[in-house]
TrEMBL record:
It comes from the Bacteria. It comes from Streptomyces polyrhachis. This is DUF6086 family protein. InterPro entries: DUF6086 (IPR045732).
Length: 121
C-alpha cells in the first residue's frame, strides 16, 4: 500500500503508506509550530497527499529559515529529515529553494542521497 504525494497529475513521491503518512503529520506539526499553512492536503478518498505548491514552498522556506537561524543541534536534528524530504519534493515540483552558501553543499549531498532512497520506499 502506498501514500503518493502528488502535484496535480504528477506524483512527486510514491511513498510507502507509513512513510507518507508520517511525513504528512510531521509537516502538519511543524506548520502549526511555525504558524503557517503546510501546503499539504490529505485526500482521504484517493489515499494521497496533495501539494499546494505556493503554500508548500512558503512552508519549506520558513522551515529552512528556522534551520538556518539557529546553531542548536537539537533543532537541526528535529528539522533535518523533514527539510531534506521537503527540498527533494520542491525540486521534483520544479520549484527548488535557493540555499545559503554555508548549507548548499551539505544539503545538496543529503538531498541527492535521500532522493535515491525515496525511490526505494
Amino acid at each position: 500500500m502506498s501514500y503518493p504525494v502528488v502535484l496535480g497529475e504528477d506524483t512527486l513521491w510514491e511513498a510507502g503508506y507509513q512513510s507518507g503518512r508520517m511525513y504528512f503529520f510531521l509537516v502538519q506539526g511543524a506548520a502549526e509550530e511555525l504558524q503557517i499553512p503546510s501546503g499539504l492536503v490529505a485526500n482521504l478518498p484517493r489515499g494521497e497527499c496533495e501539494v499546494k505548491l505556493p503554500a508548500f514552498r512558503s512552508f519549506v522556506q520558513r522551515l529552512y529559515e528556522t534551520y538556518s537561524s539557529t546553531r542548536s543541534m537539537h533543532v537541526h536534528g528535529f528539522i533535518d529529515g523533514l527539510l531534506i524530504t521537503s527540498l527533494v519534493l520542491l525540486e521534483r515540483a520544479g520549484s527548488p529553494l535557493e540555499l545559503l552558501p554555508e548549507h548548499e553543499q551539505a544539503l545538496r549531498e543529503e538531498r541527492a542521497a535521500f532522493a535515491r532512497r525515496m525511490a526505494e520506499d
